[in-house]
Amino acid sequence: MSQIFSSTQFGRLQLPNRAVMAPMTRTRASSEGLQTPLAATYYAQRAGAGLIVSEAISVSRQGHGYPATPGLWTDAQQQSWAPVFDAVHRAGGRIAAQLFHTGRSGHSSVFGEIVAPSPIAIKTGESRDVNFQSVPFETPRELATHEIPGIALDFAAAARRAIDAGADAIEIHAANSYLIDEFLRSGTNRRTDAYGRDRTRFLREVVEAVAKEIGADRTGVRFSPMSPWNDMSDENPQETFRRAAEAIRGVAFMHLVEAGGANAITPVLSQAFGGPVIVNGGYDFARAEAALAAGAAAVAFGVPYLANPDLLERFRRNAPLNTPDASTFYGGGERGYTDYPALERVA
Ligand SMILES: Cc1cc2nc3c(=O)[nH]c(=O)nc-3n(C[C@H](O)[C@H](O)[C@H](O)COP(=O)(O)O)c2cc1C
The pTM is what? Predict the structure, then answer.
């Protein structure tokens, strides 16, 4: 019996099935970080997912290092999200807003300054400036100890704005090389203060601030323990993320990106967390069923959901999937965004 179609509960969230739409930045927002009306169509088309996790949303101007991505630190940004959340609800879905601070991975031309736990630049690959030109990554300014608690409060304020705009939950983005991940991993955190002696401290402060503001039962956290992207590294990923998983005990869900072979440590982190775990990274229907049978609470699909608004229905009917067009993943308009056909219009 297939498990992906069975219901489950994460904190106060009731999920009618165990397929999650993974968060995906689509770089179609305005230069002021406003979400577009087209995003309401895009997300509503994918409302058959048990839970949608939105594209990453910056919690502050300082944390807004990517061009054409949305924010949640102004009233106008908050208002721009309300029709998106409403459209998902009207289509029968649920959506968590993914919140991040780009840390050293952004570019200063977008907002003015690049900050990180330690002044270590990314050497592999290139950054994108405000005009989408490829430029070298910059050396970040090391955050002063006294600045850090305020960034945790920025996450809480953005979480409040997301909930007030109608989001069902928040996902704290502690994955993929952004600020929280930079604090967690030893390759990017060389601090000797309290935030370096305990690399989970900033994560804990963010989770506590967000949970106090909106409730732990609608707060989730995403980690990518072994992803090497943007020069991320750790001397002992299993121990670092076991401690991180323990630090977030009590939140509604933990979301694990299994890039870099992290699936090998998923059971250890799941045990340390003790709550529902979403796994992600290269899953298809068969692998998803195996992961659910092995104890995952849900499976998140990124590119498959991007290209198949009705992914779950296709799984149900064993129907073929649309081919994703990588040239339209980032930037542009409707093409490659809201025009992937649903099943009825195929064949
Ligand atoms: C276009 C694109 C944008 C992405 N943006 C985000 C993001 O904003 N936040 C995030 O946590 N992961 C992001 N990811 C990673 C995905 O959530 C997911 O981990 C990855 O695509 C692997 O899952 P998949 O094999 O099911 O696609 C992005 C991936 C893609 C393809």
Answer: 0.98
User: 334 or 347: which carries more pLDDT confidence?
Assistant: 334
Q: Is position 178 annotated as part of the catalytic site?
A: yes
Judge contact between 147 and 63, C-beta under 8 A: no
Residue with the nearest Cα to atom 30 of ligand 1? 24
Phi, psi angles (nearest 5°) of residue 313: -65, -35
Number of domains, the chain: 1
Report the nearest atom of ligand 1 relative to the CA of 22: 17
User: Mean pLDDT for the chain?
Assistant: 97
In sequence order, the β-bridge partners of residue 10 are 13
Show the tokens assigned to 40: 């309401």
In the chain, what are the helix, strand and coil shares in percent, each to the nearest 5?
40, 15, 45
CATH of the domain at 206: 3.20.20.70
pLDDT digits (tens, 9 = 90+) for 131-189: 999 999 999 999 999 999 999 999 999 999 999 999 999 999 999 999 999 999 999 99
How deeply is 328 buried, as exposed, middle or buried, from its count of CB atoms within 10 A (0-12, 13-18, 19+)? middle
Q: In ligand 1, which atom is closest to the CA atom of 257?
A: 19
Residue 299 C-alpha to ligand 1 middle, in angstroms?
13
**Rounded CA gap, 21 and 54, in Å?**
8
**Active-site hit among 43, 66, 178, 337:** 178
Domain assignment present for residue 90? The answer is yes
Q: d(Cα 291, Cα 295) in Å, to the nearest integer?
A: 6
Half-sphere exposure of 202 (CA within 13 A, CB side): 32
Cβ within 8 Å of residue 18, ≥6 positions away:
3, 4, 5, 6, 8, 50, 292, 297, 298, 299
Q: Is 173 in the pocket of ligand 1 (CB under 6 A)?
A: yes
d(CA 79, CA 81): 5
For 86-114, what is each residue's pLDDT tens digit? 999 999 999 999 999 999 999 999 987 89
- Per the structure, the complete domain to which residue 81 belongs is given by 8-340
Binding site membership of 336 for ligand 1 (Cβ less than 6 Å)? no
